[in-house]
């Protein structure tokens, strides 16, 4: 099957530990022609958008986790409810999984990538393709996070007017004017309630994306978002961030128009053996 699949049914909201889920009332493997592997889906439940993967319960039964936000929006009542489910396969994820050729063709080993990465602030006009962008985003998703909470969300901004607007009030973000696109890394305060850990998780994700960009030959620079700054307020307003979401970094991206050589930063004076 391709395209959207719409179904109306009485769905039981099942609570299993901390998760709440509904059972997909058809054989999703057959319907999506995906006998093996994870099925990523998106659509609406009672007109409320969702995006997730299906989880197999065996015997061709697939379930869809209803996260806390969706529960609130749906008015979760813990019983059977009438559900209008629009479901379609999420092809963006398929595109990411299709990035194997980048991995195979990448000539940069991880140690070289780490030691040759430099912040790039000047860019050519060359467009970053969606496939490249998805490879970078996938690296962001691969980062470690405290208790594996993965509290990040990424806003991809390609629109030139939006990039220009974003660059205006931050003197340290001027390169965004000429960036091909940027990724705003946001942290979800509900998913990760400890602020230090939220910042650490999103920073690990940011660094992964800088390295992935470098591996693809794409220039990138990390722009920090200071928590009480006007820039932070602007980002919240410009990109309509909900109350529970905080912007943590902005990654400016583009094909490099400058060559920056890396220098050795190994510093023996900062290495302490066994004790300070
Ligand atoms: C938390 C953080 C915030 C940063 N903010 C900015 C920024 O606002 N603008 C900028 O041009 N570079 C920013 N940078 C990049 C640093 O200036 C850069 O990493 C540093 O000068 C070392 O250079 P390199 O990245 O080329 O090794 C930031 C880096 C980090 C880690």
From TrEMBL:
Transmembrane segments: none
Assigned keywords, A-Z: Oxidoreductase
Annotated Nitroreductase domain residues: 114-168, 173-255
Alphabetical list of Gene3D superfamilies matching this protein: AF2212/PG0164-like, NADH Oxidase
One Pfam family, short name: Nitroreductase
Glycoprotein keyword on record: no
Family stated for the protein in its record: Belongs to the nitroreductase family.
PANTHER family: NAD(P)H NITROREDUCTASE YDGI-RELATED, NADH DEHYDROGENASE_NAD(P)H NITROREDUCTASE XCC3605-RELATED
Name of the protein described by the UniProt record: Nitroreductase family protein
